Request: fold
Amino acid sequence: MRRLIINADDFGFTRDVNAGIIHAHRSGVLTSTTLMANGDAFGDAVRLAKETPTLDIGAHLVLVQGCSVLDGRPLPETLRQLLPLLARRGLDVYAELKAQIEKIRAAGIRLSHLDSHKHTHLFPAVFRTVVKLADEFGIRWVRLPLDSTVRLGKLSSGIGNRYYRRFAEGKNVHMTDHFLGFRLTGSLTEETFAQTLNNLADGTTEFMCHPGYLGDDLKQARTRLKESRLRELEALTSPRIRRLISEKTIALGPF
Reply:
C-alpha cells in the first residue's frame, strides 16, 4: 500500500501563493498545506482555509525571515545568522514557536501537523522543541526531517531519520515512513514529479512542494522561489499526474 500526502509549504506568505495553493487543492492533487503565522498574507490564508474545509492545515513554524510573533522583532534573515543564536540561546525557540501555534489556533484553525520554514527543525535542538510542542498541543504529526533521496555523506537518510525518531519516543507524535520533495525544491516539474511517483516506496510518504501564482506580491517578496512556484502549480494540476497516481494505485490523503 502506498499512501501519499502532498503538502504545500508557505501558506500565508503572499496572497498569490495562497491562491496557487488553493487552486492546487481544488483542481489538482494537493492534499495539505502548512500556514505561516508571521506571513504577510496570514489573514487571507485563514479566510481561504475556512472556505476550503477539505484542505488539511498544519503550521509552518518560522525561525528565519519575517518578524517574531512573540515580540515583533525581526527574525534572523538566514540559517547562517540563526545558528549562532541557537548556540548561545539568544532566541527563545520554545516561546516563539508556541506563540505561532497559538496565533493560528486563535484564528480558528485546527492543526494536524507541524513542519518548519527553511527546514530549521533539521537542527536537533529545534526538532526536540517542535516535538515537545506537538505533544503539548495534541498535534499528532511532525515532518520527518530528512528527504529519503538525500544522503548524509556515506550515510543514508534512513539512518539519520532513525536518530530523529528517537527524540519522539514516548511522545504522542508520529512521522511518515518517508519524506520527499526537499531535493526538488526549485526544480519540481511535471516530469520530475512523474519520476518521483514512479519510484514511490511502500508506506506513507509526505511530499513537500511550493506552488503559487507569480503575481506582483510574489515578484516583490524576498524569496528565490518565484517562477518555480508556477511550474510546481502546473505539475500539481496536470491531468497526466492525476492519471499516473490512479494507475499506480497511490492513495492520496491528508495527515
